[in-house]
Design goal:
single chain; four-stranded mixed beta sheet; 10 strands; 14 helices
Length: 300
């Protein structure tokens, strides 16, 4: 067996030298795989395939497990674009290395793009050889990220079934007290992290927002604000091809015919210009004369 196949056999992104040998990979084959760069020697005796996410490789190089956003991304959850390499370390961890070089001790390295987590794991049995379990990854995100991003990750976890609604009380119990109210703001109906960010901004501005509202003849829309304003948060993945844009136009025309006003939000606006989005929705609500039904009590 060659070294790269061994990772597929075990369905993992991390194998030790001892594990590779036990699977029948010869020492010379390990060395050849590293030399040809199809396998990375993350640190002494620890290997990962070259296609592993770079933040995962860096976490392994430090000497711990991928954690927080690094683990959350590997689980398919939405995470912010600009992020650190997140690594969980047990209290007895030793011989820690730089995330960029296994030859440089962590104490002597640049740690500006690295965040270490030492908090005991809630569910250590769910850990894999290279990352913490899903519940711990989400809990770490709630502990570390800014409010909107933390809730967006939690929304993503609920939407994908990585964390169940029945687990929210347990999650609330393991995050700092000032962040526990954030758990109650999570909504698994959000289709993406950018939708979560827009939802939170609109709710903070006092709007009554219904995610994934169904409108006959149109289908589900991202948000219905009040009863007459539809907000659609577009991503490049689902709204970039001619066919997708044509379908967007069809839906918009039908919505206008039915008396709705549509506000379309692009990715950059959802990430960096949410105040402008709120102002546009405010104007749309006034245009449709539906202020009373679109407003609710302001919520922090």
């Amino acid at each position: 067996m060659d070294a790269l196949t061994a990772f597929s056999v075990r369905s993992t992104l991390c194998l030790t030298r001892r594990e590779l040998l036990a699977l029948g990979v010869r020492p010379r084959a390990i060395a050849a795989a590293v030399h040809s760069e199809v396998v990375i020697r993350a640190r002494r005796g620890v290997y990962t395939p070259a296609h592993a996410p770079r933040h995962v490789v860096r976490a392994l190089r430090v000497g711990g497990l991928a954690a927080c956003t690094t683990a959350a991304e590997s689980l398919g959850l939405w995470v912010p674009e600009q992020r650190l390499t997140e690594v969980w370390l047990p209290h007895q961890a030793s011989r820690l290395r730089s995330a960029h070089s296994r030859r440089v001790p962590l104490a002597l390295s640049d740690r500006s793009q690295l965040r270490t987590h030492w908090h005991p794991l809630v569910d250590p049995r769910a850990t894999e050889s290279w990352r913490v379990g899903a519940f711990d990854a989400v809990a770490q995100c709630v502990r570390c990220l800014p409010r909107e991003f933390a809730i967006a990750v939690l929304d993503s976890a609920l939407s994908m079934g990585v964390v169940g609604a029945h687990e929210l009380p347990a999650l609330e119990a393991v995050v700092p007290s000032d962040r526990r109210p954030w758990v109650h703001l999570a909504d698994g109906r959000s289709g993406s992290g950018t939708e979560s960010l827009v939802r939170l901004a609109l709710q903070a501005a006092g709007f009554r927002v219904t995610p994934q509202a169904r409108i006959p003849g149109v289908g589900y829309v991202d948000f219905l604000v009040g009863t007459r304003v539809v907000v659609e948060v577009d991503s490049e993945q689902w709204h970039s091809t001619p066919e997708q844009r044509a379908e967007d136009c069809r839906r918009d025309l039908e919505l206008y015919r039915l008396g709705f006003v549509v506000v379309r939000v692009r990715y950059g606006q959802a990430m960096h210009a949410r105040d402008a989005v709120v102002a546009a929705v405010e104007r749309a609500v006034r245009t449709t004369r539906s202020v009373r039904v679109a407003r609710r009590h302001r919520r922090s």
